[in-house]
Amino acid sequence: MKDIPVDVGLIYEGERIRKSSMYVDLAGPKSKGAELLLVVPPEEVEDGRVEVVGPDVDQMEEGGRYPFGILIKVAGEKLEEDLEGVFERKLHYFCNYIQGFMHLNSRDIIWCRISKDAAKKGLKLEHVGKVLVNLYKSEFDVIEKIQVTFYTDEKAVDEHIARAREVYEKRDARASAIKDEDVDVFYSCLLCQSFAPTHVCAITPSRSGGCGAVTWFEGRAAVKVDPSGPIGEIPKGEVIDPVKGEYSGINEYVREKSNGTIERVYLHSLFDYPHTSCGCFEAIAFYIPEVDGIGIVHRDFHGVTPFGIPFSTMAGQVGGGVQSQGFLGISIAYLRSPKFLQGDGGWRRVVWMPAQLKERVRSAIPEEMYEKIATENEAQDLESLRSFLEQKQHPVLEGLKREEEKEAPEEEPAATMPELTVPVQATAAGAPVEFTITFKNARIYAEKVIIRRKE
Ligand code: SF4
């Protein structure tokens, strides 16, 4: 591409920049950031303009870590607000076409990195912006005007994150106003098949894509403007299980698009046929067999789950487009869905989540459950989790006790005695010996007890 100091192309999509070859980190788990794309009136966009608020790459220190925000404004006669999430998700792919620039995740959990080689060749954010302008306009005819702003100044990034979160909330709230049964068609997203070939995101009103960027409304808008793009329609078909969320249309579609690898999908359960997980999910729901409950951990949480492992380790086991029993990559918006894991008991089954996430989705948690869900402050391992749940009389314990009773049925003793002394005769070194054994608080079990009156 003209005037860009590095190559740009699909071949760089899978490029990983390791720490040893990193020039700077932008946003990411140890900093902060957000990306946002807005559809605005044409008079609010200066077409082709790229602005950097704060230091650009050439003013950054090698090895440094900087807060980072991306704001893209687009305008066009045929554009509608519902397209924002879909176009915003494209940022991930377009950024990764740039040699020496890595983009991970979405929304307010983005993590970007610039390589030493790219910085040496003179790559700046200004160039990244020009590439984005070019790629967006060439891929989407409907975008008539586009303007890109990068934020690296801390105060400006904070303001940008706050604004972005407001928009995400608004988008998610809109999607939760309708339910799966209110519509005849669902949507699919195949964008992540580039690194998870069997992953097919089924997007319904009650379940947004794992990355959180694509809701049912955004799927519908995307199909209108780009019918042959990565987002397509899924005919709903027959309802096979309304609680777990199994539909014949989704099963058929997923079977075909996963090349026969995935046969069945439950939208709202972690078990048997859970939805596949790609790798860019915002959170993971995971089954904790020791308490028969469900934990949730999100990408921003850097501590360990009660299993003793952090999000990153768990994500490595869950992603890649496979169905992992008891594990499910989800969006934060799904936690607000009225059908949230309803096949497994929904919020009554949730036992642990990071305090920050619990606060963030507070309004979605039923009031009677809020205090019963442990966070890292009350439970750091399985033992402390179990005692917290017992203390709070969490509903999972009822099921757990029933299970334990089933496994080890306790027989009723025939008699209990505070003290029972039994005379014993035995032989030691060939000679007979007599002694007594005393049982304290003895419980006597017997197949049959015969009581006879003394004559
Ligand atoms: S996580 Fe799902 S919705 Fe999001 S980009 Fe990937 S395939 Fe699409």
Major sheet details = 4 strands, mixed
Share in helix: 25-40%
- Which CATH class of the domain at 10-173 is shown? Alpha Beta
| Number of H/I helices | 11
The structure class reads alpha+beta
Order of helices and strands: EEEEEHEEHHEHEEHEEEHEEHEEHHHHEE
Q: Approximately what portion of the residues adopt beta-strand conformation?
A: 15-25%
Adjacency order of strands in the biggest sheet: 4-1-7-6
Unreliably modeled segments: none
Terminal-residue CA separation: 111 Å
**Mean pLDDT metric:** 90
Count the strands?
A: 19
Bound molecules: iron/sulfur cluster
Instruction: Please identify which CATH superfamily of the domain at 10-173 we are dealing with.
Output: Bifunctional carbon monoxide dehydrogenase/acetyl-coa synthase(codh/acs), Chain M, domain 3
> In the CATH classification, which architecture of the domain at 10-173 applies?
2-Layer Sandwich
Radius of gyration: 29 Å
Shape: elongated
CATH topology of the domain at 10-173: Bifunctional carbon monoxide dehydrogenase/acetyl-coa synthase(codh/acs), Chain M, domain 3
